[in-house]
């Protein structure tokens, strides 16, 4: 089967659902740094800095996106490339690099003196991409987490109630062990 044609286009309102869906497919939204992925996060980018929001389209579907904004931690002349993703079936063809370049060009044109992006430690693909595109390591921040007392037990108990299929499996396993 031949590869579909992929086009880079500025993101528009019609892309909202596709971008949101692709993000949910490729980001683990239960873990940092992806927990803030949401429709409002996408919409805020499109609203504030539409020229820094780009989409790759393949057969009318969203195959990738880059969402940038101007300002990072109150630094109004720092661009922030916060969200970047390419669908697994379209990876390894330079799409992320092209999306990133478009977004950065827009941020520089809008007055950014630098562009910041953050990469989770285990995400070697993204780290390599950034290095290849002229980003260099800066500050490393480690999130230390302290859980509330008893929270692991509570989470296990919640899990039991919220997933009926798992609850049935566990009950069956307990019956087997018991008998
Ligand atoms: C990271 C990601 C965006 C790369 O997309 P992609 O379209 O496959 O990347 P490209 O083809 O443009 O690759 C550009 C460069 O990135 C690097 N790269 C990309 N994928 C890589 C991988 N799996 N391992 C190592 N390096 C990789 C390479 O250096 C590559 O350059 P080269 O081909 O000249 O060696 C994609 O894997 C993805 O969507 N991952 C999940 C979401 C994510 O982590 N987003 C970034 C944080 S928000």
TrEMBL record:
Residue segments, region Disordered: 150-179
Organism superkingdom: Bacteria
Cellular compartments per GO CC: ribosome
Domain N-acetyltransferase: 6-156
Protein name stated in the entry: Ribosomal protein S18 acetylase RimI-like enzyme
Pfam family, one: Acetyltransf_1
GO molecular function: acyltransferase activity, transferring groups other than amino-acyl groups
Keywords, in A-Z order: Acyltransferase, Ribonucleoprotein, Ribosomal protein, Transferase
SUPFAM superfamilies: Acyl-CoA N-acyltransferases (Nat)
């Amino acid at each position: 089967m031949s590869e579909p044609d992929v086009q880079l286009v500025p993101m528009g309102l019609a892309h909202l659902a596709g971008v949101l869906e692709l993000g949910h497919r490729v980001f683990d939204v239960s873990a940092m740094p992806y927990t803030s992925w949401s429709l409002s996060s996408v919409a805020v980018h499109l609203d504030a800095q539409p020229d820094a929001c780009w989409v790759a389209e393949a057969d009318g579907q969203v195959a990738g996106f880059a969402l940038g904004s101007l300002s990072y931690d109150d630094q109004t002349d720092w661009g922030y490339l916060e969200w970047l993703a390419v669908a697994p079936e379209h990876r390894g063809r330079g799409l992320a690099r092209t999306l990133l370049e478009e977004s950065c060009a827009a941020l520089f044109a809008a007055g950014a003196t630098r562009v910041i992006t953050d990469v989770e430690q285990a995400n070697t693909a993204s780290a390599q991409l950034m290095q290849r595109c002229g980003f260099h390591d800066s500050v490393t921040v480690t999130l230390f987490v302290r859980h509330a007392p008893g929270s692991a037990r509570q989470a296990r108990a919640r899990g039991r109630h919220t997933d009926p299929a798992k609850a049935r499996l566990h009950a069956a396993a307990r019956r087997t062990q018991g008998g």
